[in-house]
Amino acid sequence: MAITAGISKVVLNVANVFESARFYSEVMGLERDPEAPDERWGWAWFCTGEPGSEQRLGLHQGRMAYEDYSPTPAGPRHRTVHFALHIPHKNLDELVERLRSKGIDLHGPASHDWVRAVSYYLFDLDGNLIELFSPLG
After folding, report:
1. 11: buried, middle or exposed (CB in 10 Å: 19+, 13-18, 0-12)?
2. What is the structure's pLDDT at 4?
3. 135: closest CA among 98, 87, 100, 101?
4. CATH fold of 1-63, please?
5. Which of 79, 86, 92, 114 is the most buried if burial means most Cβ atoms within 10 Å?
């Protein structure tokens, strides 16, 4: 029995929250969380799940919460990450074409036979690897 019900949020530390927020909204097409603080507070939040779900992608510029308690030495503690957005297969071709029309360098498709899915990959402005994960049927 799983103790978790999924991932609630992923927060990326970004160099410029205004530029990154524009990338995730205008290029990636993610919907802003209308209830969340905006970039003036160093944050941007996006909804990444079904309407009403608590799944969020957060962008933050500056020190992260509890950073002073990190077991790693002082200095840069946050590195680039690889995360996947679940893209319903019926939406994949449209998203791929939209990203390509905006000049985004996409890699793939890559087949994942063990989970019956296909993925495309791209990098955001901070070098994070975004996987567009699309289950087949």
Report:
1. middle
2. 81
3. 87
4. 2,3-Dihydroxybiphenyl 1,2-Dioxygenase; domain 1 (3.10.180)
5. 92
pLDDT tens for each residue of 79-100: 789 999 999 999 999 999 999 9
Task: Tell me, yes or no, if the two domains 1-63 and 80-137 fold the same way.
Answer: yes
Residues with Cβ within 8 Å of residue 126, at least 6 apart in sequence: 12, 13, 14, 15, 20, 80
CATH node for 80-137: 3.10.180.10
Q: pTM for the full model?
A: 0.89
Domain ranges of the chain: 1-63, 80-137
Band of the pLDDT at 25, cuts 50, 70, 90? very high
Which one has a higher pLDDT value, 3 or 90? 90
* Count helices and strands in the chain by DSSP H and E runs: 2, 8
Dihedral sign computed on CA atoms, order 106, 9, 24, 22: negative
- Which residue type sits at 112? H
With 0-12 CB in 10 A as exposed, 13-18 as middle and 19+ as buried, what is 49?
A: middle
